[in-house]
Amino acid sequence: MRRVLVGIVALALCAPATALAHPSRRAPTAADHLAKIVRLSPAPEYRRFGTPAMGRVANYAAGQLASDRYQVVRDDVGGLNRWAVDYARGDRPTLVRLGDGHAFKTESAFDIAPTSAAGIQCTVKKLADVGPGDCGFVPFSDGSPEWKNVTFNASADVASIVSKGGVGAIVQGDTTRNLIYSVRLHTTIPAIVAVVGNDIVGQRVRLRAMGASVPAVAHNVIGILRPPAGSSQYVALMGHMDGWFQAAADNGGGAAAVLRAAHELAASRPGVGVLVGLFDGEEYGLLGSRGFAAELSSPSGVAGVHMSDLKAVMNLDASSARASDVQDPIHSVAGHDAPIFSWRAMVFSEEPTLASLFISTFAAHGVLGLPVTSQVAKATIGGGSWRTDAQWFGDAGVPVAWPVAGYPEYHTDGDVPARMDKGDLEAVAQAAADLVSKLATAPIGRVAQQLR
Questions:
Q1: Which end of the chain is less crowded, N or C, counting CB atoms within 10 A of the terminal residue's CB?
Q2: What pLDDT does residue 4 have?
């Protein structure tokens, strides 16, 4: 792990000159931050963990926090690995039907056995019919990563293909929306995700998926606004910056909302310290936040801040996303979306004061959702864990508030800014800043560690 503490004055030199030269200029909205984050994250690797684009986004976030007078810590976590897909011409992921040469929209799965540039040839079979030398077909109903899909078992299906002697796996994308998605399979055969119908079963195909596991560094950015005299408590405001594709909702929007809320808090100076955490590697196993939480729990802490100093955590991860499967039909008839923006859960630790303030404050800003305790969330959609960077803090007993929205484009190439609602994203940012301010004087205690 490598950490560089950068002084406010030095980092301010990296921030846009206009931030200091024109203090009255309009502050960037959450949508402005999102647009910048996406521009810094071009195809084909986008903003995946440990990529050069993630480094650029981390630099941008650090510059924004520095311009708002936060003490900035570049808390990179090394010694990690990531799967890097080979997108070179002639090597990129491919699925071709040999009968007519038709090529399907395709993405590689992650953590797989790669092919050569020539790929492999096989006959596509249903899971029950796979035999030696075949490629198994995983239907979208099994493979979709959307949180509403409680039967997600793509990895189990692929393991079944391997056990039967299959040589490749084809995971079906979203044919209704023409979307491909990311999936980590940890398998010993090549595997791809393709927008292909069930009629591919029985066909001969050529499949190519090239790549390798490469060393990686998680680019964390930490911002510290010290508490007022006489206080040592902090409220953490956090979200992850990495994402699989353009990742507008998960989690470009969350990172953008954190930056927007951080600006508001710097201007209002709440009666508590603010610890901003923008992490890398969330999609690969909460890697950046795990390293940061371990440091906070160490005797030295991070720039003098310790886990015991944290009063609460405001986590913005996929907190604003338009539920297109619900809103599109309504919009086609009414000409506008329904008032309730998305299928959103308001997840909170079992701390009554935090829960009450969280729900009421966000509702006051028009951010609505179904109240869900952390234990219920972990036991259902979480599969036994938080599935977000707040996990390490909740496990340490720090109360957490987390609004999270469900939407069909989750982890797909359709998660783009055009599918977002700018008004809702801004409302989430303003609500988060408001809640952090209210938590400054709220009587909040630690919560018991239950489901781990």
A1: C
A2: 39
How far from 305 is each of 222, 235, 372, 408, 449, CA to CA, in Å?
A: 11, 11, 30, 39, 22
What lies within 8 Å, CB to CB, of 269 at 6+ separation is: 225, 228
Q: Please compute, for residue 388, the number of CA atoms within 13 A of its CA located in the half-sphere on the CB side.
A: 32
H/E stretch holding 95: strand 94-97
* Omega of the bond leading into 44 within 30 degrees of 0 (cis): yes
Q: What is the largest CA-CA distance in the chain?
A: 75
Q: Which residue has the tokens 């560089």?
A: 4
Residue 436 banded pLDDT, cuts 50, 70, 90: very high
Could you tell me the strand order of the sheet in which 168-172 lies? 102-103, 94-97, 204-208, 120-126, 135-138, 168-172, 191-194, 106-108
Question: CA–CA distance from 43 to each of 180, 188, 244 (Å)?
Answer: 14, 27, 10
Residue 342 in tokens: 């998305």
CA atoms within 13 A on the CB side of 99: 8
Per residue in 91-102, pLDDT (tens digit) is 999 999 999 999
Assigned token pair, 435: 């809640």
User: Rounded CA gap, 172 and 154, in Å?
Assistant: 10
- Does the pLDDT of residue 16 top 80, yes or no? no
Domains defined along the chain, listed by start: 2-82+216-439 (3.40.630.10), 87-209 (3.50.30.30)
pLDDT band for 11, please (50, 70, 90 cuts). Answer: very low
pLDDT value, residue 320: 95
Distance CA 232, CA 225 (A): 11
The 3-state secondary structure of 45-81, one letter per residue? CCCCCCCHHHHHHHHHHHHHHHHCCCEEEEEEEEEEE
By mean pLDDT, which of 3-7, 64-68, 168-172, 306-310 is the weakest?
Answer: 3-7
Give the residue from 238, 236, 216, 184 showing the smallest Cα distance to 287.
216
Alpha-carbon distance of 256 to 130, in angstroms, equals 45
Global pTM exceeds 0.85: yes
